[in-house]
Amino acid sequence: MKLQPHRIQQAAVIGAGVMGAAIAAQLANAGIPVTLLDIVLPDNPDRNFLAKQGIQRALKARPAAFMDPARAALITPGNLEDDLKKLGGADWIVEAIIEKLDAKRDLWAKVEPVAKKTAIISSNSSGIPMHLQIEGRSEAFQRRFVGAHFFNPPRYLHLLEVIPTPQTDPEILRAFSSFAEATLGKGIVVANDVPGFVANRIGVYGIVRAMQHMQAAGLTQDEADQLTGPALGRAKSATFRTADLSGLDIIYHVASDLDKATPADEDFSLTDTFRSLVEDKKFLGDKTGSGFYKKTKDEKGKTKILSLNLDTLAYEDRGKVRVAAVEAVKGRPLAERVRALYAAEGKEGDFLRGVMNDGFWYAAKMAGHVSDRLQDIDNALKWGFGWEQGPFETMDTLGVQTVIANLEAEGRELPPLLAAMKASGRDAFYAGGETVTPAGEPTPYAAPYFILTDLKKDATKVVKKRAGASVVDLGDGVLLVEWHAKMNALGEDQLRAVQDAHKLVQSMGYAGLVVGNQGENFSAGANLPLILSQAQAEEWDELDDAIKQFQTATTSMRFSPHPCVVAPFGLALGGGCEFSIHADRVVASAETYMGLVEVGVGLIPGGGGTKEMLLRFTDMQQPGQQLGMALLPAVQRAFELIGTAKVSTSALEARKLGFLRDHDTVVMNKNHVLEEAKRAVLDLAPDYVQPVMRQDIPVMGDAAIAAVKSVLYGMKEGGYISPYDHEVSLQLARVLSGGTGNNRAAKVSEQHLLDLEREAFLTLLGKKGTQQRIEHMLKTGKPLRN
Fold first, then answer.
1. Across the strands, what pairs with 462?
2. Percentage of the residues of the chain whose pLDDT score is greater than 90
3. Residue spans of beta strands (DSSP E) within 556-712
4. Are residues 451 and 518 in contact, defined by beta-carbon separation less than 8 angstroms?
5. Distance between CA 135 and CA 576 in Å, rounded?
6. What tens digit of pLDDT does each residue of 486-501 get?
7. Residue finishing a domain among 156, 190, 224
8. Please, which pLDDT band fits residue 456 given cuts at 50, 70 and 90?
């Protein structure tokens, strides 16, 4: 048996500030017990006050730091005076204290004597080189030391920069990277031990250069953020909102430090305006309530965003800012948007080309310096700053030779990588399964560490393709249904692809089927525009057939002669949830937001969701509690879950709500979900027996409807629900009761409940109130309370 001397089963975090507490929370999310230590405050009787305060801060954090608040029990608070020896039980020790080199060196001197000899030691420093921290420590300590730079908030930002020193044992690097990627769910970028590492080095450079270009072009930060946000494939917070979120003081200190530590041509110099915001005005962003933007409330209590006038340093209401270049590319694919924006005219185009060319030039200059792989630089910007494309991928979109020509036209000296690309005539960094080294030499493309290769890039694996879905061979006898429509809304292509896959499994002798994809979300539900248009055209027979087909597709996840595993992540709403809950097994990303949300558009779940949740909660009742009024708690639980459109905030909460069962699997890293789902199919296949529909579901009949009506009456009279909420709720109650006319306890089949669902769905779809709700949702993205 191979020993695992560096297996991480317990951890310790030193420093209970914002980052330290959030790192401890992410470890707890992964099920790892954590000791959280901080200093003892003088004159405070609670010697663990700071650690306890850190846990409470994490519990109150928004967005939530914990996937399940109960996981906070895995964190044990302590202090560095009384509990230092507790570090001896930790397999991994990470510090997140003040960013001062002397403080970190003093800490490591205290940690080394008490840490176990196999423990991995890490610093979360965002910029202090790792090798400087461990000067004077023993050789054994230095071999076990590796930087681990999380991005805030650690739960949601995928990036973890792992920074080895020249002394780091390669086995430690491998073991820690594997743990962080698989157990903590992080995207690993191996960074060189240089100032700023990868993401901050390039990202902060981009922010300070954008500030310079913005003022030179005479733009406001609102306009600059429009140009450098989603239109360019970057985060909604764009440039200056990101600076506010990060903290202008953090940007100030990182940029100032990098300006001192880097050559003059890199130019991390801050503008006088930026310096004034931090030094004079103390406008530090969200932490002080004032930065480039400021939140306030109008006379009606509605939140309003004010913008800082960079000339007067006074805040003003600019309303909805529209930028012509951005308006011109709305609705177009990313590649088209990037090309159009790069070629835009006027001051908007001048600003964008300045920002983009700076980014291209600097990323190329940093290749081989901050990291040895181009894809690590791209991934650092994507995972740390929310970009859709990294700088090298964006240059590929524009054409590398076009970018080179533009840089030369500006009089720039090409970095060695771009000079080599010019000499070779190669127009893309990634092509034909190849990329290039920092020296510009072709090399086989290596997928990100430990991640399943992107299926959509390998056409040889596609068995059958439709416009909105594909059937893909995952290998080892497992097929994948991969949806690839906008938000993966469920329509004809998606349902027919499921049918295609089932037929292929049976005709070709595959082991089973996975339903999943590699988009931004698993599925946000049904194709509402299509449903609405059919309802308004009164195509009731067609709609009835469509709902039957939908029910057939969702229930086929359980009632097929082969195992079916569904792999949700991100949004799994409405129909996406219904596909999941009918699977033989679910393998869900930890960040799965699952719910039956149809009441928001005046409907109830029509793909078996209502039936399935009633069945599950009824089965949870003890024998003897499945008759008559004893069933009421199960009916109430299903009614509350569906009637309030409850959505889980994580897969852990989805399990508590009942969407996931005990035998379903939660995977911390979204990129591992398909791999684990494939493994689940292969585990189920050898002894798989096709299930049959249940005929024995106990229902309450009219007694359930009467109970629900009495509750709804009080809620309606109290103004808690709207008149149309009441109407939708009555249809939901009718299905959960098993139908009207039952004056005694009865048992019904799953098909009976499916028929009731379909009838209720069509009834509501024919009502004006539901059509108004759907129209409002499509226009505003928000539910209508009519």
1. 472
2. 84
3. 564-566, 570-573, 585-589, 592-595, 665-667, 697-699
4. no
5. 53
6. 899 999 999 999 999 9
7. 190
8. very low
